[in-house]
Every structure is written in structure tokens, then in C-alpha cells.
Amino acid sequence: MSRILVTGAAGYIGSAFCKEGLERGFNIIGIDNFSNSSDQSINFLMESKQHNFTFSEVDLCKDLESLREIFVNNDINYVVHFAGFKSVIESQMHPKMYWDNNLESTKNLTRIMLEYGVKNILFSSSASVYGKSNNQPVSEACKLKPMSVYGATKEANEKFLEDLSTKGNLKTISLRYFNPVGNIQMMPVNSPRQDSKNLMDNIIDVCIGETKELNIFGDDYKTSDGTAERDFIHIQDLIDAHFESLKYFEQLNGYEVFNIGTGNSVSVKNIIKTFKEVNSIEFVVKISDRREGDVPICYADNSKAKNILKWEAKKDLREMCLDAWRPYKK
Question: pLDDT tens digits, residue range 122-144?
């Protein structure tokens, strides 16, 4: 079976990919430096799937020799690159740190890939590259106008990988994620840092008593109910898209990019209402001022992924809300 190197293997999406890959019979080599996550998920994977999972603590920006050793000792077929700093808020406070880390890690990774003739890389990108687009739903052809340093580093990595791929050095697929939520069954909860939390993380926090109330930032947008609208996607559907993408490498020459979202626009008030209903739980909601940089609406045109990858999301909003709360139910 194919061998996959997974960077950022300890994170929310990376660890979920590792678990799914192991269950599908792939040999997984995970690396992470634990800058954004703990070793909880790695320990779980090591204990449950020792025969085809290995892990090394590696910093892609600093440990070039450790990375090279992994390529020397393993016949790697694919690289799935999740690693990178991911907080929009932090990126605005420490832009140089984000530019240095997120680009240098990709440059070092691809340098070693080219040294050892590994050509296939699946890159974890983000819908943040679109910024405030007037075209909704957004397609892959929309102009990229990131509004944060984080989003700008994703765009820069895409362009770097596209350049290497169009010259024939690599084959790259970039997946632009929209808003992943929920949990993979049987996986330990992978709680993000405070400055990386999304709406669902904040809902969970108020439900478990970490915070007293949930803030809705703005209810005066020109949307269906005045609150911002986003494309929420279940983490399982997101992970499935990665495995459909791996199949596509067989016919890919050069570079390709896909939106990975449901194609449905869901308001903040709607997801709160659904979460309360399906989980029979109540919590205090407070309307606050809009946050700088928030866009009124952003959701995916996912027709390209449907047509080419033969992938589409299967889980609905109710399932997302149920699975997000399931690990916390007593």
C-alpha cells in the first residue's frame, strides 16, 4: 500500500487524516513540532495503529537533516502538507513570524522532496485566500484578495507550488477548505488555541462552562437574518475529499486547485439554533459589534470538485452539530 508523509499530523485535520488513512490501509509517516497542538492524538494513533504508523517530532523550518533522514528511510509516494501557523488574529500581530514559518516550511519540504524524487504533494489551503469577494458562491477562478497575513501566506504557498508544478518538478493539488467543524468518531478531542477558535469552538466553550456567553459579532449584515454566513463542512467530508484527491494524482500533470465546501451558506444564528435543537441544550447569546475583517458572506462553488474529483459533502448541519458536541456529552 502507498506510503504517505503527513506534516502537521498532530493537528485537528492532520490527525483526522492520519486515522482515516490508517483505516484505509495506507502506511502513514507523521511529523509535527507541536507548536499548535499536543501529543494527545499522536499517542492515540500510536497505541491503536502501531503496525503502519510512525511519528517523528520535526520542525520543518529548522530540522532539515531530520526531514532528510525520513526520506532516506522511507519510499514515500505522497506528501500531505497540513503544517503551518493558522491563527488569523496572531498573523496580524506577528506577520513576520507567519511569513517565515509558513513559507519556509513549504520551501524546505519541497526541497527535500525534489532531492529524493517525490513528486506528489497535496496542500492544505484555505478559503481565506478569497477575502471579501463580491462573487458568491466563490469559484476557484475568483480573484484572490486575502484580508489577513494568514490568508496571504496560503496564497503565496499556492503560487510557489504552482510554479514548481508547471515547470514539471512537482504535481500539486491545493484544497481550499471552507469551515470544517465536528469530530471524527473515536478520536480524542483536538482543542485549538484560543486565538484559532472558530464559531463551533466558541459554542462548545460556552456549553462546557469555559465562557459565560456566546458573542455574535454583528447582526446588521445584508444577509438572510443579519448575521454573517459561512460554508460549514463536516470534518469527515473534508477528509474524504483528500483521499479522492490522492486518486486524482494518477491523471494529474502540473497543478490543480479545488474548493472543499458544501456549497451551502449558513448564518451564525442558524447554526446556533440548530446546535441548541439537536443537542437539547441552552446557552446565553450576546450580540456584539462587527469584527474588523469579517466578511458578510462566503461559501463555496464546489462544482469543480464534484465534476473532477467525484466528491461532494454528505453530512448536513444537524450531523455537524451532533458530532461537535458528542465527545463532551456526559
Answer: 999 999 999 988 899 999 999 99
Give the total residue count for the chain. Answer: 330
Whether residue 221 lies in the annotated active site: no
Query: Of 150, 177, 221, 248, which is the active-site residue?
Result: 150
Comma-separated ranges of CATH 3.40.50.720 domains in the chain: 3-181+232-260
- Tell me the pTM: 0.95
Q: Which three cell numbers stand for residue 155?
A: 496564497
**CATH code linked to domain 3-181+232-260:** 3.40.50.720
Distance CA 67, CA 82 (A): 15
Cis upstream peptide for 296 (omega within 30°): no
Q: State the CATH architecture for 194-230+265-298+316-328.
A: Alpha-Beta Complex (3.90)
Q: For the chain, give the mean pLDDT.
A: 94
Task: Determine contact, residues 24/97, Cβ cutoff 8 Å.
Answer: no
The strand pairing partners of 133, in sequence order, are: none
C-alpha triplet 42, 60, 188: angle, nearest 5°: 20
Could you give the angle at the alpha carbon of 326 between the alpha carbons of 321 and 327, nearest 5°? Answer: 130
55-59: list long-range contacts, CB under 8 Å, 24+ apart. 55/9, 55/29, 55/30, 55/31, 56/29, 56/30, 56/31, 57/31, 57/32, 57/33, 58/31, 58/32, 58/33, 59/33, 59/35
Residue in 293, 261, 297 with CA at minimum distance from that of residue 140 = 261
Helix ranges (H only) for the chain are 12-23, 40-48, 64-73, 88-93, 95-115, 149-166, 199-207, 235-248, 268-279, 303-304, 317-325
CATH 3.90.25.10 location in the chain? 194-230+265-298+316-328
Residue range 190-202, pLDDT digits in tens: 666 555 678 999 9
The packing angle between helices 199-207 and 268-279, to 10°, is 40
